Amino acid sequence: MGVLSAVSILAPYISPPSLLSSRAELRTPLHGIVASTAMLLDSEPIGGALKPSLEAIKVCGEHMLELVNNVLDIGKIEAKKLSLESVPFRPLDELDAVTKIFALQAEQKKIRLEKVVGMDHPTRVGDPLRFRQVLFNLVSNAIKFTDEGGQVLLRMSDDGELIHTEVEDTGAGIPKEHLSTLFEVHLYHQTPS
């Protein structure tokens, strides 16, 4: 579920003042998860399947912390004053982070998760959090709607000015009759299995 979807669902039930007062209660456990996982990864020689699992926990915890921070910005979103950052970042790092988040889920569904990358300009200026959120939502939906044994292919390239990102999957896709309403709020279409 995307951040804006979560915000629109939660908005009637929460108020910005109560969110602001619970800011620490929401963030502290996630900081603990991220820090503890980082400490384990840095302090012990970890082998086998444990290291990728710990890395996934760390990346997921960091992403969840970012989502909580976004929900805490609900007032800005409602007022349409949410600003985008403009900082140097590496889109491939964001793609790698999202891939790590979904690697275990893809493996459990026996989905082949692959990346094809052709970036001539690895550093960009923009909002890495929002970029990652878009990637997260695209990959999440691709894995969610791809049957066991399928494939999800992530492509990223650039032309010097623009970043081109594609997520292709072997899922059922969106029925043609629903394409015209694709970007409406609260759109949840069931796809045939």
How would you describe what is shown here?
The structure is a single chain. Helices cover 51% and strands 15% of the residues. The chain is α+β, with helices and mostly antiparallel strands. The protein has two domains: 3-78; 87-175, Heat Shock Protein 90 (2-Layer Sandwich). The longest helix is centred in the first third of the chain and has 23 residues, at 50-72. The chain starts with a helix and ends in a 24-residue tail after the last strand.
The H/E string reads HHHHHEHEEHEE
User: Portion of residues in helices?
Assistant: 40-55%
Shape: globular
Per DSSP, what share of the residues sits in E-state strands of 2 or more residues?
Answer: 5-15%
What is the topology?
Layout lengths: L2 H8 L5 H6 L1 H21 L6 H23 L1 H5 L8 E3 L1 H18 L3 E7 L5 E3 L1 H17 L6 E8 L4 E7 L24
Parallel strand pairs: 2-4
Antiparallel strand pairs: 1-3, 4-5
Helix pairs in contact: 3-4, 4-6, 6-7
Question: Top keywords for this entry?
Answer:
193 residues, alpha+beta, Heat Shock Protein 90, 2 domains, three-stranded mixed sheet, two-stranded antiparallel sheet, 5 strands, disordered N terminus
Gist of the model:
By secondary structure, this protein is of the alpha+beta class. The protein is 51% helix and 15% strand.
